[in-house]
Amino acid sequence: MRRAENLHAILVTIVLTLVCYAVPSSADTLVTTETVSRIAFGSCNSERKPQPLWPVIAKDEPSLWIWTGDNIYADTEDAQVFRAKYDQQLEHPGYGAFARRVPFMTGTWDDHDYGVNDGGNEYPKKELAKAELYRFLSVPDDDVSRERPGIYRHYDYGPADQRVRVILLDTRWFRDPLQRTEGPDRSYIPNTVGTVLGDAQWTWLETQLSDPEPEVTIIVSSIQVVASEHRFEKWANFPNEQNRLYELLSKYQGGKVFVISGDRHAGEISAESVKSGPTPLIDVTSSGLTNTWSRQFDETNSRALGPKVIENNYGLIEIDWRDAASPVVTISIKGTEGVIQATTL
Question: According to the model, what pLDDT value does residue 26 have?
């Protein structure tokens, strides 16, 4: 009898845990029904370097952490190297303590954790990179994205009238090749016919954006969407794809929609007027947690809302739900001393 009672207690504990922390599956992307008001994010994190920001971010008490890419610097096709680098990050004391405090964690990749600098669909070890990233993020075995190419997926957080949707784009798996000019300041030549997302991901993205349920929608793009004038990786290298995204966003204007990005080893906030949109599209770039510019680049961003941030930084999203029908969203780039830049939607 006592053994049966003990088994019942164990089962009750398991059931309660699943109710409080529902995991995404092929039929259910709702992670939690608890209201989510603080979300932190960041990118460009070397597993080999000091990582001073984890205790700083923890003080903000985020309910969700989003990796926006370059979560480690793998740059390899070797399975053992991938595994060792992710393990080194998982075993980092500061990160481990942070991860234990944050209820939910998710993310996408950029090029270095994908496996090759500025890589796209030509990279031969996609499946290996996906398996190691999903192990690192503890993506459930029954997650629907495991059944398809790429790592694009979405998760919902919060009750029905305070829903936050996180759309995680994959800007690597399907991305067509790019060509560069020659010389010390070589830059990418725009590819006017290629794709960033691929047909299936575009169809999926429109489905996510057309859903009127979320009050707040966060589009996670590892590369910058709005900043278009620098010579490095960006959506503007594929002007047809950038315009397609803007057209899609102008078509679906429900709720608060914005972009968070990484990649640049510098932080900044950019804004672009989207046709028929009531407010500009905001792209908040937080980069990097460990890797930032060692020198100033002479580059222009006419869409920037402030100067570049070249100290270690992370992003924080704060949602004021007092008017649930029109929540106030504040997005900040923060460093060790607090807010550096911020914008409010």
Answer: 35
Give pTM, 2 decimals: 0.91
Cβ 101 vs Cβ 94: under 8 Å? no
Q: Is 239 helix (H, G, I), strand (E, B) or coil?
A: helix
Question: What's the pLDDT score for residue 28?
Answer: 55
Which tokens hold the place of 140? 């459930």
> How many whole angstroms separate alpha carbon 221 and alpha carbon 260?
6
Question: Which DSSP symbol is given to 25?
Answer: B
pLDDT for 296: 65
Q: Coil, helix or strand for 16?
A: helix
Q: Which long-range contacts (CB under 8 A, 24 or more apart) does 30-35 make?
A: 30/155, 30/156, 30/157, 31/104, 31/155, 31/156, 31/157, 32/103, 32/104, 32/157, 32/158, 33/158, 33/159, 34/63, 34/157, 34/158, 34/159, 35/158, 35/159, 35/162, 35/321
Q: How far apart are the first and last CA of the chain?
A: 58
Per-run averaged pLDDT (10 residues), the chain, 345 residues: 37 32 49 97 98 98 98 98 98 98 98 97 98 98 96 97 97 95 88 97 97 96 97 96 95 89 97 79 97 81 94 98 95 97 95
Q: Where are the alpha helices (DSSP H) in 138-272?
A: 199-210, 239-251
Of 193, 168, 163, give the one whose Cα is nearest residue 178: 193
Single out the residue of 323, 328, 319, 315 nearest to residue 67, CA to CA.
315
Please state, in angstroms and rounded to a whole number, the distance separating the CA atoms of residues 225 and 12: 46
Q: What is the C-alpha separation between 121 and 161, in angstroms, rounded?
A: 39
CATH number for the domain running over 24-344: 3.60.21.70
Provide the residue type at 195 as one letter. Answer: T
